[in-house]
Amino acid sequence: MILLTGENLNIEEMRSILFQNEKIELDKNALIRVQNSREAVERIVKEGRTVYGINTGFGKFSDVSINEEDVRALQLHLIRSHACGIGEPFEERVSRAMVVLRLNALLKGFSGIRVDVLERLAYMVNHSIHPVIPSQGSLGASGDLAPLSHLALVLVGEGFVWRDGQHIAASDLWTEHAIEPLVLEAKEGLALINGTQAMTAQGVVNWLEAETLAYQSEWIAAMTMEALHGITDAFHPAVHKARGYVEQVDVAKRMLVWLEGSQLVTVQGQKRVQDAYSLRCIPQIHGASWQVLGYVKEKLEIEMNAATDNPLIFEDGEVIISGGNFHGQPIAFAMDFLKIAVAELANVSERRIERLVNPYLNEGLPPFLSPQPGLQSGAMILQYAAASLVSENKTLAHPASVDSIPSSANQEDHVSMGTIGARHAGTIIQNARRVLAIETFCALQGTEYRGKEKMSPSLQDKWKEYRTFTPSIDEDRIFSIDIERISAYLQKETGFTTYLN
């Protein structure tokens, strides 16, 4: 059970909630803050004070006052009108993350929302009720309005939820649970949708998958080192301490651990003096991506515990400020940075694939790892596929955050496009995983030719594990099946701490 306080939710707790369906509970002290904030909103409505988002219109309509008897209708109109997301839905795990993160932000007690609404959100998490949320349509300021509106629709008995990979009406879901949909009160609609939780939810899932992929890329590269008789001197601790990057030092250390006991790797001068960069510079290249992962994690964990709606209520309602915490620029930058870091893991992997299949570079392995070169093409086109994926990644890695289009009659004249960046980062991660799956497939074959009994004990274990579902190349076959199997297997490890120190 994960306790949500609005203050200290972290990435590892999100891993448990998202990948192991860990349940949540709400901190009692946080609920007191929420109740105090709600009472402030009710006083404002009762006193007839004009405050943005409570009894006014939204965006460019902020100067339109709303009568007390219309504040409920205002919230419902807001949710319905803003629920204009389009395209394929976010994957269900991202939807779950969105509910958790919006709930955690509201627990901070600055939003003026009722405890009842938060308890309903917690019920959704603990009963795996996940809204169907279209993935396109957000500018990343004022927050993720369209995606979060689809989340809020479920609370009022509209929209759709996931069930066994299909979509069912939220109204039917609440009937099954014998629970009435909520009726939103003053400010609650705005509190639910004015935040960065779509980009942050996708960002959290991205980070968890990217972290696992970064660890996996190391043992995969180590297996390639064995297949190519790579030189381990390049991983000597002194080399990396001399430069000073902790992440680089750590990658070199882990590479030596993976290769410990191997009879296939070599030392300087044994076969050649030095390796190509894609082998020799693994700690420098992968280590730089780890630096980015550290930066992104820091920003995500701040945003996961941030109050990102508008206006915010302070000092028991005496101070209400319209600000801009909904602006997604920090996460937009983080996602764009993550795109580059993961794209590079794929870029260097593709170069190692080329070395495994190219008869002029693969140290005597069969051309294209073919069992009958010429008659059978072997892994020739696998390198083509990897090259295609890394090229696509280079296009997707263009920063979304450099773009901005004004909206709401120029009231919202600069936006972050952070949700686009997060979505593209997710696609890059999928592509990179498939590239690394191709390298895995080729490295399995290469080490088999060299003699798997000469591999390091830890990599022998990996070889045996992956050979249970991807057999050797004894004849050309539809290799896309193998790559998808390996990619799916790699992805499944995201939910566990297999590679964590």
TrEMBL record:
BP GO terms, sorted: L-histidine catabolic process to glutamate and formamide; L-histidine catabolic process to glutamate and formate
PROSITE patterns: PAL_HISTIDASE (PS00488)
A GO CC term assigned to this protein in UniProt: cytoplasm
Location(s), subcellular: Cytoplasm
UniProt modification remark: Contains an active site 4-methylidene-imidazol-5-one (MIO), which is formed autocatalytically by cyclization and dehydration of residues Ala-Ser-Gly.
Membrane-spanning intervals of the chain: none
Enzyme Commission code: 4.3.1.3
Primary location group: cytoplasm
Residues recorded with modification 2,3-didehydroalanine (Ser): S142
Catalysed reaction, written as an equation: L-histidine = trans-urocanate + NH4(+)
SUPFAM superfamilies named in the record: L-aspartase-like (SSF48557)
Covalent cross-link 5-imidazolinone (Ala-Gly) as placed by the record, residue numbers: A141-G143
InterPro entries xref list: Aromatic_Lyase, Fumarase/histidase_N, HutH, L-Aspartase-like, Phe/His_NH3-lyase_AS
Domain of life per record: Bacteria
CDD domains, A to Z: PAL-HAL
UniProt keyword annotations, A-Z: Cytoplasm, Histidine metabolism, Lyase
Single annotated GO MF: histidine ammonia-lyase activity
Pathway participation: Amino-acid degradation; L-histidine degradation into L-glutamate; N-formimidoyl-L-glutamate from L-histidine: step 1/3
Protein family per UniProt: Belongs to the PAL/histidase family.
Identification of the protein by name: Histidine ammonia-lyase
Highest classification ranks of the organism: Bacteria, Bacillati, Bacillota, Bacilli, Bacillales
Gene: hutH
